[in-house]
Amino acid sequence: MRWNRPDAAPSIMGIINVTPDSFSDGGRYRDVSQALGLARRMIDGGADILDVGGESTRPGARPVPVDEQVARVVPVVRALRRHLGDNPVISVDTTRSEVAERALGAGANMINDVSAGRDSPGMFRLAAAHAVPLVIMHMQGRPETMQTAPHYDDVLDEVEGFLRERMRAALDAGVATHHIILDPGIGFGKRSSDNLALLAGLHRLVAIGPPVLLGASRKRFMGRLCGTVDPVDLLGATCATTAIGATAGVRLFRVHDVKENRQAANVAWALRQPPGQAPAD
Ligand code: HH2
Question: Is the CB of 242 under 6 A from ligand 1?
């Protein structure tokens, strides 16, 4: 996998929300042909991974029942695999192992679990049995209430400790080391100051070992900094976080706008390469 190869530029994970209520694109890609059109544009823009989710995890969101998630996600995953071939990695964004299992059966080959295996006891065993990459993300609380009063004594310490503990649990369940990906969970039970502290301290999370994924795309704390309430207006801000992350050694970026973030990642990543390895003029 590209993100395990330090000689390769970071991976871009394009977000395909097949939900009615996601915070920035809810309702836009609900049917299979809309999702497929978005996926093709993302591949053309340089996406390596397509992340398909049927449940919004924005602040205040309520859980979506398993059957409903399956009905939203599985036909899209099946169509993406059929029409796009073997190449793109297709990730399923769910905290429920039943949904992940059905998506894997339809052609997905990665699991993105924002609960880090805490919602479904079987999630880590499923990832191990299918030998697929697994994203383990930090969240304080649950989406319904996570932004009510988030609090940390030291956010970087706590996120690092959590990721180390969940990584150990995944390894104990049989997930291979090279399949683990860690994510600080920007915006998940965090104040603006917490998100900024995590962005500033990404190198510490990178030092844990496994590839780190950053999911800052269009998130609200940047709107406060940039004076906009429209998440779609946050393209420049999102690209800034991608450049910051790539400079710190982050290997995967989960984004809505693939082409622009691909460019930001490539330029920032080039700075990390040894002298003499810049592309020829
Ligand atoms: N953020 C969102 C959803 N899934 N997964 C990972 N690993 N990291 C993230 O930061 C992350 C995620 C929320 O963004 P989005 O999918 O755009 O919105 P919604 O949850 O409203 O569908």
Answer: no
CA distance 113 to 120: 10
| 26 CA → ligand 1 middle, Å | 12
Q: Are 205 and 159 in contact (CB under 8 A)?
A: yes
10 contacts 51 by C-beta, under 8 angstroms: no
Q: Give 60-101 pLDDT, tens digit per residue.
A: 889 999 999 999 999 999 999 999 999 999 999 999 999 999
Indicate the residue type of 194. Answer: D
CB 106 within 8 A of CB 99: no
> Is residue 254 annotated as a catalytic residue, yes or no?
yes
183 lines ligand 1 (CB under 6 A): yes
| pLDDT over 80 at 30, yes or no | no
- pTM value is 0.97
Whole-Å CA distances, 73 to 53, 108, 206, 256? 6, 10, 31, 17
Residue showing tokens 């995590």: 198
> Ligand 1: which residue has its CA nearest to atom 18?
22
Tokens of 179: 């399949």
Q: Minimal CA–CA distance to 13: which of 28, 27, 24, 3?
A: 3
What span, in angstroms and rounded, lies between the C-alpha atoms of 189 and 198?
13
Block residue for tokens 């949904």:
99
Measured in Å, residue 68 CA sits from the centre of ligand 1 at 18
Q: 59 falls in which pLDDT band (50, 70, 90)?
A: confident
**Catalytic residue, candidates 78, 218, 254, 262:** 254
Active-site residue, 40 included:
no
Cα–Cα nearest to 91, from 61, 123, 53? 53
23, 27, 33, 35 alpha-carbon torsion, rounded to 10°? 10
